[in-house]
Amino acid sequence: MTGGWRRRVIAGCVALLAVASGAGCATIPTGSPAEFEEGVLGDPLRKPYVRMIAMPPRPEWGPGHVLEGFLAAMAAVDDPGWSVARQYLTGEAARAWRPDVRVTVYDKGQIKPPGHLPENATEARVTLQGTRVGAINDEGKYSAELEPQNGPIQEFKLVKEPAGWRISEVPHGLLLTEADIRRSYRKVKLYYLDSTKRGLVVDEVRIPLDPKIDFAESIVKRLLKGPTATLREAVRNALPAGTRLRDVWTEDDTVIVDLNEAAANAISSGGGDDVDAMAAQIGWTLNQLTERWEVEIRVNGDSFYAGSGTPLRVGYDRYGHFDPWLIGGARDTYVMADGALQTVGAEGKLTPVAGQAGQPGEAHIDPAVAAQGRTVAALNEGSDAIEVAPLVQGGQWRRWITGKNLTAPSWDRYDTVWTVDRVGERSSRVYRHDGTQQTRVAAAGLETVGVQNLRVARDGVRVAAVVEDQAGVHVKVGIIMVQASGTQIVNLQTLATAADGQKIVDIAWRDATTLLVLTSSKSGQEIIAVSVTDGTSEPFKADARIDSITAFEDRIIAGVMDPEEGKSEVLYWDSKGAWVPLLKNPATAPALPLG
């Protein structure tokens, strides 16, 4: 999120202190706004925060000042029950108000006072104006506004009581600035399992800080609640039903997670496989806080395996087999050169891959490389078939999917190829091939639009598509739901819409939750990194000649076609923020595994 409006603080309304959660000392900043540097010192379970101490309303405050104090009190981390904020409300409003159902996030806030009021006035209306930039629902899911607009956010009715002005009408939920969110919430990745229970899937939420408890406790409790609605139909939870957190603490550089007896039921499920899966979920979720400390899971204070006394310890990377894509590391880059698929080595040296795919003159376009770099899929020249070839000596092209007008292929992490057949201007069919047969996939949100591109994320659960309908061209993101009755693409939501005169050229997954969108307009080209979990985005400049992109984490590679010179080139985004040639030879269609 971008920097937001900083509230002018009424004297005596609030006090700001920069503290570490649980620390015994505080520093009072001399200026405004308060600044703090986030860090974990000593105990990884503590999170630093900027402390805002809300003060109750004063009898002499007018309606505008009362609303300002109420907004400040809603943002007070040290008052998680909002007891001070309720003092700004009438008795009836305080009893009815439910602050925990949602959060409206705004920027550039201004309070529009009621104007001149006679001394005997008993009612007033005050309006908060600004720009709605997002919202957090009761699951902690943040959603950015696609098109933030400035205007009235909320009108408040106030009445004059003997103790002063009080708010009599207030909507459920909280109203917080972007600065409030940065100060009092933390973005957290929760890890669940895909339908096979072999891979981890990230769910991102915002969790409020509570100075009374360790942040690790808040994270584990939220993990136990299960995934958000957007992922619920596609993921599994290895933590057995009824599992509750008893406590979290540290011992000798180890984080102890003490669960109740229900957690032991994972032992009897799947021959112990669910124990590993449960440990992977907890370990990966806590790793973002503990910075690679070891985690030990206990049951009712005892070792997880009570009979033998053997502890269940979760070391960083110990459960990396649940998702090697979480670990990172080098990945080969592939390009098409001289009609053959080739790998890019040191100093841009090209080496043809093994098998028929590496032979010159092959008539294939838009290659996609499977997870382990052992197989390639590509469109034939007529775009009516997707063919697959093993990257081994003697590997031959085999036809996997046939259609009328297919999109470029995309692999999921279990070696299944996905594509869309565009059978009409507004008619599309999604197909997959798992190595045994071509299967149509139900995808209600894609079947009545024109699909230009489809990409499966590296988690094998999320899917992105560029589609065109009567309203324009959009980037949509959904999930792959696998059930006994079949596979479906569901929960499609619009991530971005092309503006007038703008074209969506290509998309690529940077990681499981970040989608790169390449756009083109009269003003030039731009790549936008969009978080598919909350809609926040970060743009950066693209070379005007780029016509395709592929990515893995910080590595972004682009294919370039110079229309004036008729030359093809491959570029990469370097650490200095510039596009640099990856190799000297002409090449096209750069690809990274699962990119």
Automatic annotation (TrEMBL):
InterPro entries: GerMN (IPR019606), LpqB_C (IPR018910), LpqB_N (IPR059026). Coiled coil: none annotated. Residues 216-308 form the GerMN domain. Pfam families: Germane, Gmad1, LpqB_N. Transmembrane segments: none annotated. Keywords: Signal. Residues 1-26 form the signal peptide. This is GerMN domain-containing protein. It comes from Spongiactinospora rosea. The lineage of its organism: Bacteria, Bacillati, Actinomycetota, Actinomycetes, Streptosporangiales.
